[in-house]
């Protein structure tokens, strides 16, 4: 690269410009998670993708992304975060071009798998670059506030953009739109980002760890995806879950024994980081389920167009931006992170609780809008310190893999949320239809029963989402114990593993 490396002792003068390009890349990755959902029905029809195979447009991406994240984080530590970041962007753009130009099912599925692969390089590199570039407490709070707002609200932006592109152009543009994002971010990163010189981990790559973690995470994500379509008792579903447990257990044993592990267990065992990974994963389970059910509810039950549905999510985006950049950022240097995360998840749970009152003819302004505002404010407030704490107390050489763990908890949480909550909703819908079928004797009554049964399914699943968010709040309150200003645990002495390493990459300032 053309820039000389800098040390982490002095702040990088171009760090805010660098944040702009990191944010653009993060927005692209998060957008892609939801934008394709809107385009899927049109793409399925155009390319002749069968009903049984349509889920693979989503699953191919999820498997590659979720399975390779830890590997991507380790490559960033080994190869250099800037180089990994730019490579991920270029690859993601090429894969998106391939998806947009897809002429058949195989080409589409291959493009989606490639997007997942390059996304797994890009996402941990982006977060770990922030961790090593922003070292001053207030600036770090502001940078992670922006990043947290994008991570939380980008999915809803994807629904709006996906609706526009699908309705007014065609589904191919939901892929092509990634290319300008990636080109701008890659060019900006190449010329602006200067990575601290001492943060590399040049240890040999842990090949057994790569194989076991990738296969274990792929089996886990596929198990939940399969459960959604084929049921929890399906032989392949059960086999995938058993294989996942065995492979991931073998991975943990391997990591405890090898000299240069892919995922040093010290990254997981520090209580603050462990609390973040667990609470964030649970919160994402709820959020993924909500995006899904609210999209279905607005389009199928209320009859909204794709564009109108996208705009209906704006209050949640607004809430996330305010919660992340105004509440989280302003308070992070003054109060302990748990005092932002636990109440944030609880506020989101209250917003979710409102949505359990959905009826077929529920007023958007009277119920859905205030619920979304509460959800957005709560999630934005909680996500911001959570993203920042992902690299709490890590040595510079572990920043990439610690960042990858956040993305892994989100990806696995998303897979679990979609499968688990969909299954609960489907069961409740079927039970309601069975109980009330005899009373629906006219076509109008049958149509109303179908709508009511769908809403019954959504609200049953949303009740579970409320409980999951309350659990996330409790975990954040109990496990996250770092203080506001010092960056050391408030209640005990188990924060930074090696105090001499803490000076190289300051722990998150709260």
From TrEMBL:
GO terms for cellular component: plasma membrane
Biological process terms in GO annotation: response to antibiotic
Alphabetized UniProt keyword annotations: Antibiotic resistance, Cell membrane, Membrane, Transmembrane, Transmembrane helix, Transport
InterPro entries given in the database record: EmrB-like, MFS, MFS_dom, MFS_trans_sf, Sugar_transporter_CS
Major facilitator superfamily (MFS) profile domain sequence ranges: 18-485
Keyword Cell membrane: yes
Species in which this protein is naturally found: Streptomyces aurantiacus JA 4570
Spans through the membrane: 21-43, 55-73, 85-103, 109-132, 144-165, 171-193, 205-224, 236-254, 275-298, 310-327, 339-358, 364-387, 461-480
First-listed, main subcellular location of the protein, grouped into a coarse class: membrane
Gene3D superfamilies linked to this entry: MFS general substrate transporter like domains, Multidrug resistance protein D
Gene Ontology molecular function, alphabetical: transmembrane transporter activity
One protein family per Pfam: MFS_1
PROSITE patterns: MFS, SUGAR_TRANSPORT_1
Compartments where located: Cell membrane
Domain of life per record: Bacteria
Protein topology in the membrane: Multi-pass membrane protein
Name of the protein in its database record: Putative Puromycin resistance protein pur8
């Amino acid at each position: 690269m053309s820039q000389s490396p800098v040390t982490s002792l002095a702040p990088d003068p171009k760090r805010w410009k660098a944040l702009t390009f990191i944010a653009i890349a993060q927005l692209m990755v998060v957008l892609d998670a939801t934008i394709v959902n809107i385009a899927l029905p049109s793409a399925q029809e155009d390319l002749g993708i069968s009903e049984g195979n349509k889920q693979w447009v989503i699953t191919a991406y999820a498997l590659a992304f979720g399975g390779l994240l830890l590997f991507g984080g380790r490559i960033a530590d080994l190869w250099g975060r800037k180089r990994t970041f730019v490579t991920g962007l270029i690859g993601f753009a090429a894969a998106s071009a391939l998806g947009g130009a897809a002429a058949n099912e195989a080409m589409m599925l291959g493009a989606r798998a490639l997007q997942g692969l390059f996304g797994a390089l890009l996402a941990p590199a982006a977060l770990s670059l922030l961790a090593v570039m922003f070292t001053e407490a207030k600036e770090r709070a502001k940078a992670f506030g922006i990043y947290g707002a994008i991570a939380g609200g980008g999915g809803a932006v994807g629904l709006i953009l996906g609706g526009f592109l699908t309705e007014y152009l065609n589904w191919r543009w939901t892929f092509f739109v990634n290319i300008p994002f990636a080109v701008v971010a890659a060019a900006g990163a190449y010329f602006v980002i200067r990575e601290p010189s001492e943060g590399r981990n040049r240890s040999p790559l842990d090949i057994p760890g790569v194989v076991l973690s990738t296969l274990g995470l792929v089996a886990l994500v596929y198990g939940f995806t399969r459960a959604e379509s084929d049921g929890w008792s399906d032989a392949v579903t059960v086999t995938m879950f058993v294989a996942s447990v065995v492979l991931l257990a073998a991975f943990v044993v391997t990591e405890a024994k090898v000299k240069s592990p892919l995922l040093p267990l010290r990254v997981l065992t520090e209580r603050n980081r462990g609390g973040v990974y667990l609470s964030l994963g649970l919160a994402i389970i709820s959020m993924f389920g909500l995006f899904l059910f609210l999209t279905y509810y607005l389009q199928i039950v209320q009859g909204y167009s794709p564009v109108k549905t996208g705009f209906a999510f704006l209050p949640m985006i607004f809430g996330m931006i305010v919660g992340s950049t105004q509440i989280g950022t302003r308070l992070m240097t003054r109060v302990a992170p748990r005092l932002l995360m636990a109440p944030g998840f609880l506020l989101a749970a209250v917003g979710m609780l409102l949505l359990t009152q959905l009826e077929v003819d529920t007023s958007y302004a009277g119920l859905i809008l205030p619920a979304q505002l509460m959800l957005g404010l709560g999630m934005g407030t909680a996500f911001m310190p959570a993203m920042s704490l992902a690299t709490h107390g890590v040595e510079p050489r572990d920043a990439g893999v610690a960042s990858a763990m956040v993305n892994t908890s989100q990806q696995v949480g998303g897979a679990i949320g979609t499968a688990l909550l969909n299954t609960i909703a489907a069961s409740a819908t079927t039970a309601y239809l069975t109980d009330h079928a005899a009373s629906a004797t006219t076509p109008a009554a049958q149509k109303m029963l179908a709508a009511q049964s769908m809403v019954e399914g959504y609200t049953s699943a949303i009740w579970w989402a409320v409980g999951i968010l309350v659990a996330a709040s409790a975990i954040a309150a109990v496990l996250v114990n770092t203080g506001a200003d010092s960056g050391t645990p408030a209640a005990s002495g188990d924060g930074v593993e090696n105090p001499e390493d803490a000076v190289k990459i300051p722990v998150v300032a709260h």
